[in-house]
Amino acid sequence: MKHVAVMIENQAFPIPDASKQGLDDIARAAAELGFKIVDVAGFLADVDMMAGQQKQSIEALTRQSQHVLASNATVLTTLHDLMSRAQTNAQSAKATADQVETNAQQAQGIAQWVNALADQMAQMTDTLRNIHKSNEQIASIAAQVNILAVNAKIEAARAGDAGRGFAVVAAAINELSAKTTKTAENIFSDVDALTRTVGTLNSQSADVATEAGRVIESSVAITTASQDLAERAAKNAHATRQIKTEAETVGALVSDFLPAFESISGCAAKTATGVHHVSQQTNGMIDLSERMVQLTVGLGVVSGDRQFIERVQSDARQIAKRFEHALDTQLITEAALFSETYHVIPGSNPQQVMAPFTRLTDSILPEILEAALTSDARVVFCAAVDQRGYLPTHNKCFSHPQSDDPVWNMAHCRNRRIFDDRVGLKAGQSTAPFLLQVYRRDMGGGQFALMKDLSAPIVVNGRHWGGLRMAYLADA
After folding, report:
1. CA 370/CA 407 separation, integer angstroms
2. What's the rounded Cα separation, in Å, for the pair 25 and 37?
3. Cα–Cα distance between 150 and 138 in angstroms, integer?
């Protein structure tokens, strides 16, 4: 039986002579298996991400519930103090209202007494007027008596000795009349002074009576306001008691469902761990399926992939030669060409970066990349990446200036970006003669495309720089 030795990833694999059709079937089956595993892996990756997010959300919700419970306990304590103060304020407000009502009643009594005093002062004024009139009559009588006494003295003088006794009586009457007149004058003076005083008091009592009326009105208003305040304080105390009751209910409910949240959180954590483990296992299956595809392709019997392998290997060697020429002509230093220092382009979204060799790749790679892109209708893109997955120069159709739309940028501005995903890193770090991978390409906006990613290493003066990637549709 004849055996053929085939080099796959720098390893020799002796294989027996077999039918080309059987190997083609195995290759197609391996590729189909790879695509399905990649599709499942992509779904699991999404589930893994969502499970992680759900786990974080549930954990956050649990923490928030615990915080709510703690805050509710604080609220209950505060409400208890507030309720005590509200009850105290309600009692104080009622006591104040009662005192205000008592004071109002006393003020009304004083005002009524002032009004009564004003009436009495008016009556006193009338009495003084009557006294003044009576005193005027007394003064008039005294004047008339004085006139009679003078006439009597005149007649007594005419009578001579016979009128002496009458003269004595007339003199006494005259003296009494004079005293009466003097007394009447004094009474006039006192009554006038008393009348003026009573008039002043009467005027003042009228003003006081007016103020007393205002006091009565104000006391009524104050009494009403204080009673309303007492009622409001009582309602506030009642509302505080209701809030405290509701807060206690909320606290009890949170306490009841918090263990359920903690249980859900534990289950979510286990689920997330399990999904992550399965996702990692699926990545291993992807590696295995890719190796199966690569082994069958390496046998040289799958013509559909062979042409791409030869193309990407040839282009990778051309790129290496151009890099070597740039070093020889001092267009760039070796340190700059192999630099892993990247500077962020401000305002880029998704983020784009520049490396010391970006300008060089922009000048020497487009010719090779564009030729590869147009070599077959199935080719989606062709670009070189360094060992960290940095893609400095892309095909023109993927190298548009960025817009304000990050989703559009994701699909149309793919140059100057670091693709450090599994496929991108393996393509840049693999030193095998070629590496064939199957993967889901993120096209932006939640859109993905299943395709093959073929890469070959770029070795410059014996030093591994990165790899040339060519992505193409397997069944186009």
Report:
1. 24
2. 18
3. 18
- Are the C-beta atoms of residues 145 and 172 closer than 8 Å to each other? no
Dihedral sign for Cα atoms in the order 9, 14, 20, 21: negative
In the Cβ-directed half-sphere of 402, how many Cα atoms lie within 13 Å?
19
* Encoded amino acid at 384, one letter: A
Look up the pTM and report it: 0.50
Tell me the C-alpha distance between 306 and 296, whole Å: 11
Q: Which residues pair with 463 in a beta bridge?
A: 460
Type of residue numbered 321: K
SS3 7: strand
Rounded CA separation 406/444 (Å): 9
407: how many CB neighbours lie within 10 A of its CB?
14
What pLDDT tens digit does each residue of the chain (476 aa) get?
344 444 444 454 444 555 555 656 665 656 556 555 655 655 665 666 666 676 677 767 667 666 766 776 776 687 677 667 767 766 776 776 677 667 667 666 766 766 676 677 677 777 767 777 777 777 777 777 778 777 777 877 777 777 767 677 777 777 777 777 777 677 777 777 777 776 777 676 667 667 766 766 766 676 677 677 667 767 766 776 777 677 677 667 667 766 765 677 677 667 667 666 665 566 566 666 666 666 666 665 555 678 899 999 999 999 999 999 999 999 999 999 999 999 999 999 999 999 999 999 999 999 999 999 999 999 999 999 999 999 999 999 999 999 999 999 999 999 999 999 989 999 999 999 999 888 776 655 667 777 889 999 999 999 999 999 999 986 64
Type of residue found at 274 = G
